[in-house]
Amino acid sequence: MPAMHRFLPRSLLGQMLLAVALALLAAQTLSAVLIYRADHQRREAALISSLAFQLVADPRFEFRDGRRNGREGRRKVRIERALESPIHDGDLHDPEREAALRDVLIAQDVAIGELVVFSRKVTADSYVMRGRAGSLSGREGRWSLDGEVLLAGLKRAGNDEWLVARVPRPEHSTRALGGLILQTLLLYIALVGGLAFLLRRITRPLAALTERMSRFAGRADGVEPLEPSGPEDTRALIAAHNEMEARIAALLDEKDVMLGAIGHDLKTPLAALRVRIESVDDETERAKMAGTIEDITHSLDDILSLARVGHAKDPLERTDLAALVSAVVEEYEDLGEPVELGDTMRIALPLRATWMRRALRNLIDNALRYGGTAEVSLSRDNGYAAVCVTDNGPGIPEGEIAAMFEPFARGEVSRNRSTGGAGLGLTLARAIAEQHGGSLSLANRVENGRKVGLAAELRLPHGS
Fold first, then answer.
1. How many Cα atoms are found within 13 Å in the side-chain-facing hemisphere of 21?
2. What fold is seen in the domain 314-461?
3. How far is CA 171 from CA 143, 174, 288, in A?
4. Least reliable range by pLDDT among 84-98, 124-138, 388-402
5. Are strands 148-156 and 162-169 parallel, antiparallel or unpaired?
């Protein structure tokens, strides 16, 4: 079943057209079966009626035997009379037609002694061939040399003589089937084509709405609201989306203003505290106070960055991601941190370089804080550029990995305030990845059945 789903259309338009096409195919198939059965029954009735007429009426039977020189020839052929049963070895006995013919003859008050119905090749029937002798050749005429003849032998009760009637067995005609196929094609063109036109009026504005929603970042950025189009229901949906979009943008703007005010109001007293602690004589206490102020300032910067990350105003610029990764790793190497650069490859992407550096630094800081070392690599993977930061730490319990992306989540008890950070590093890194249309994932590194570290993979889409 999953393999079948891969071949099914995923769009509303495709699924609706497929449903109509399948329904029409089922209806036309049923119609074809009914037409075929009706045509078959009509032909059978005609065959049985012709045989019965010959056997009941005057035994002399006249049939038309083709055209010759533009005129229709006429040849009198008598019903064959025989003293022995006409069925020979090799003839195809037909019990169903025999039963049908018996019912017709009984209805005509014919006293049946014996009755047989069977088929044989026209060329194997000497009686028909004698009647055709010298008149026709090939496939012309009523009695085709390539066809079959249906024979009925009747011996009335109290009579020793057999009467043998013959009719040509008609070949199956494809005319009705051809007409049905043509009718189906015309219906497909008219119905499916008309439905496709109507569905386009629905799906086109829905596709535009979907694209608008996927690009919506919480700000209008000077873009006009999406113009309502399509049927009335779709127009109402687009209008409701425009109103929701406007409300969300207004709320986010208010949030940014509020956070900016909070940041300003908090940073001012923090700066004053830095000045005042210089008057503290105890150097140890002064260092603790300075560290606390630095932690608060850092946490405040993270909170403000997280609030702004989805609404960055700086444009995307095509950037060599490998060079950016190398530059960030080099910064740590210059500081003497145990950060190594693994395998990389040249990948150019449209990025906001400042934000991407922030995300990489957060991932490397986490690796150093909880694993002691960090290795950074860059590779291509199924249309994505994958930046992987690995460490040799204890990893994270499987049930807690998802919670690590939540703001202020700290995981293990050992990860206390003294280790640094406020639990916003991974949250901010993931938000930056999503800002670029990518994702961030965590996975424990396992060797020989035990954890040997943690791998953080930041994936960014690229065109090729």
1. 13
2. Heat Shock Protein 90 (3.30.565)
3. 11, 9, 104
4. 124-138
5. antiparallel
